[in-house]
Design goal:
Elements (H helix, E strand, L loop, with lengths): L1 H7 L31 H4 L5 H4 L11 E17 L17 E13 L2 E8 L3 E5 L12 E16 L4 E19 L3 E20 L4 E8 L2 E10 L6 E9 L2 E9 L4 E10 L6 E6 L5 E6 L5 E11 L4 E10 L18 E11 L4 E21 L1 E21 L1
Length: 396
């Protein structure tokens, strides 16, 4: 029954945008947002540990259901500094309000064993320009969504170490539009598989260390191109979504305070080219050199337990962008480094349920673009992101 409740979340639809570096989504729970997601591979505060480290399931007591919703409002504006078609304008604010849901479930399956199941959106991108603008021949709409189903198992190796593993069934769909004298649209989707692994070690009664890995997932999207100067028809494109590894620590300093920290590596060098070809002939529809770099995300946070009902959170993070330089920065993903400042809290509604809320503001680096593809787009992007998340957790 509770698995059916999770699957019903799919009916909400996952609308997403690029809030962490590249087009990765950090927003996988609200309980971690207040810490800027510091320590998530070690904290295991609820069933959302399915995503961050499945070994943490052994810290969940009994049967638990977690339902999460995020309101995310990015803003990014282009200032022209010498584009070929500067007279066409700057495209307005390419961000917009988005809603992203997650859901997780955990239950015992035997002594020392725990089962977990998660529905999430690990990657997403949405940028949309007003038409006309100076770079419309390169990009108008860029919209990518993923839905990830993640059954997991955790095993208690001994009284200090837990192991976890999960399988990811991931659906991806993408839509790209640009102006070629008419509105040209490329659409495609795919389903593929990956996995995640985790270890959680208890050093003593106050300190835990978590190590987690999520595999890369290689997709081959199939779809169609419409209103293209070379004609309509079936297309395909590879989308190699990166793997990531996290090392986290959580340490209780006293009865009131807890410290959290995290370092996460993401293998964005897998995103080498954005290439779309015709499925029947292999002829190139578009081929863009991306040449992204691997990235690091470093975060620290703290929790303050005011009383048995109230817990307060705070955190900050540095999130490195993968785009190597202005020549490789494209209007579809005008990415830069981010600084996260976050806070949040938890209120125990009852012995069985509690509510988590979190807020984060992301200061996005002002970045240069000097990209030639059909025409030159030259200037800078200035952006920011606001995230508000809420989560209800219930144990049975």
């Amino acid at each position: 029954m509770r698995i059916k409740m999770l699957c019903a979340m799919l009916g909400l639809g996952l609308s997403a945008g690029a809030w962490a570096s590249g087009f990765k989504l950090m927003e996988q729970n609200a309980s971690g947002l207040g810490n800027a997601y510091a320590g998530q591979a070690a904290s295991a505060q609820d069933a959302s540990t399915v995503y961050f480290n499945p070994a943490g399931l052994l810290r969940i007591e009994g049967e638990q259901l977690v339902v999460v919703g995020h309101l995310i409002r990015p803003s990014s504006k282009f200032t022209d500094q010498g584009s070929t078609a500067a007279a066409l304008g700057t495209g307005g604010d390419i961000g917009g309000l988005n809603f992203v849901p997650n859901a997780y479930y955990a239950r015992d399956v035997g002594p020392g064993w725990k089962f977990g199941f998660g529905i999430s959106s690990p990657f997403g991108l949405k940028t949309e320009y007003d038409n006309p603008w100076a770079g419309r021949s390169q990009a108008l709409l860029s919209d990518l969504k993923t839905i990830n189903l993640n059954p997991s198992l955790a095993w208690l190796l001994n009284d200090k170490i837990a192991l976890g593993a999960g399988v990811s069934l991931q659906y991806i769909e993408a839509e790209l539009t640009q102006w070629t004298g008419q509105l040209t649209t490329l659409k495609g989707d795919d389903i593929s598989f990956g996995y995640n692994l985790g270890v959680l070690a208890r050093l003593d009664n106050n300190t835990r260390i978590g190590l987690a890995y999520r595999s890369a997932i290689d997709h081959t999207l199939e779809g169609k191109v419409s209103n293209h100067p070379g004609g309509d028809g079936p297309i395909k494109a590879d989308a190699n979504l990166p793997g990531s590894a996290s090392l986290s620590v959580v340490s209780r300093l006293n009865d009131a305070w807890e410290f959290l920290a995290d370092a996460t590596w993401t293998g964005w060098s897998s995103f080498d080219r954005l290439k779309v070809v015709r499925a029947t002939t292999g002829a190139t529809v578009t081929d863009i050199d991306e040449s992204w770099d691997d990235t690091w995300r470093i975060s620290v946070g703290a929790n303050y337990r005011q009383n048995p009902k109230w817990l307060w959170r705070m955190g900050m993070a540095y999130d490195q962008g993968p785009v190597p330089d202005a020549q490789h920065r494209t209007p579809r993903i005008p990415d830069g480094d981010r600084i996260w400042l976050a806070f949040g809290g938890q209120y125990k509604v009852s012995d069985k349920g509690w509510l988590d809320v979190g807020y984060a503001h992301l200061f996005v680096e002002t970045v240069k673009i000097n990209h030639t593809e059909t025409v030159l787009v030259k200037g800078e992007y200035k952006g920011k992101v606001d995230i508000l998340s809420a989560q209800y957790t219930h144990t049975f």
